[in-house]
Design brief:
With 229 residues, this protein is α+β, with helices and mostly antiparallel strands. It contains nine helices and five strands; from the N terminus they run αααααααββαβαββ. It has helices at residues 8-20, 28-37, 46-56, 59-64, 67-70, 78-98, 107-118, 155-164, 185-200; strands at 125-131, 137-145, 169-175, 204-212, 215-218. The protein has a five-stranded mixed β-sheet with strand order 2-1-3-4-5, sandwiched between helices. A hairpin with a 5-residue loop joins strand 1 (125-131) and strand 2. Helix 1 packs across helix 2 and helix 2 (28-37) crosses helix 3. It is elongated. The relative contact order is 0.09.
Length: 229
């Protein structure tokens, strides 16, 4: 049922404008304003959309903002913050699935895929690439999402995901949003632990790749860490 009230006409015009033209021709604030319609069924969302964009800089930054940061913006409540995070995470999931690796892939293709998946993230995210016993691609999965400075490697979830898809080989990756593409000691320790756990299940951990901005670091390819693998 269409909402009834002061802003009915404006909302209908914005919706029709969206349906009639390419989204690329719509200003950022109109796209965000329309998203917010579904968090505020009886309220003018234009001002809130502008406030969000002014706070974070642009629409992309709004969509990548953390839930807690969104709540700090005036008039942004839990429904609006949740809706924005939902849109953002689904868009990333869609892009991840639509840009999956080929069955057979190169090291460069892995790096490019992981950079496109992780370089824009504001928080640390763990992503796994699962392969069969020939090293051919099966699927990818986001395993965990942490803070802007750290995340834990949830071993149980990672192992269960590998078993569910019948993986024999696994590549793990995570990003450093506020750092460099260099493994910390915690990253090294987590890699050693995962390697040992996977070995007990006849699953091979073949690499741990760190992403920061447009840079990637393969632990397997670095002489300081390749003995782990």
């Amino acid at each position: 049922m269409e909402e009834k009230g002061l802003h009915d006409g404006h909302r209908k015009r914005v919706r029709q404008s969206f349906l009639d033209r390419n989204i690329d021709s719509m200003p950022d604030h109109e796209i965000l304003e329309m998203i917010l319609f579904y968090a505020y069924p009886r309220r003018d969302t234009n001002e809130i959309a502008h406030r969000l964009i002014n706070t974070f800089g642009n629409l992309e930054a709004v969509m990548n903002a953390a839930y807690e940061d969104l709540l700090q913006v005036k008039d942004v409540g839990e429904n609006a913050a949740t809706l924005i995070v939902l849109f953002s995470r689904y868009a990333k999931r869609y892009m991840m699935k639509s840009n999956e690796l080929k069955k057979e892939f190169t090291e460069e293709e892995i790096m490019n895929f992981l950079k496109s998946r992780l370089s824009h993230e504001r928080n640390e995210v763990v992503v796994s690439i699962f392969c069969d016993n020939k090293g051919q691609f099966i699927k990818t999965a986001e395993i965990d999402r942490g803070t802007s400075t750290e995340t834990a490697f949830r071993t149980r979830e990672l192992v269960e995901a590998a078993i569910r898809c019948g993986a024999s080989k696994v590549i793990i990756s995570h990003n450093h949003p506020k750092g460099f593409a260099v493994p910390s000691q915690a990253d090294v320790n987590a890699t050693v632990d995962l390697k040992d756990i996977f070995a007990q299940l006849d699953i091979e951990l073949i690499d741990h790749i760190i992403v920061a901005d447009d840079d990637c670091f393969s632990m397997r390819m670095h002489k300081k860490y390749n003995s782990i693998f």
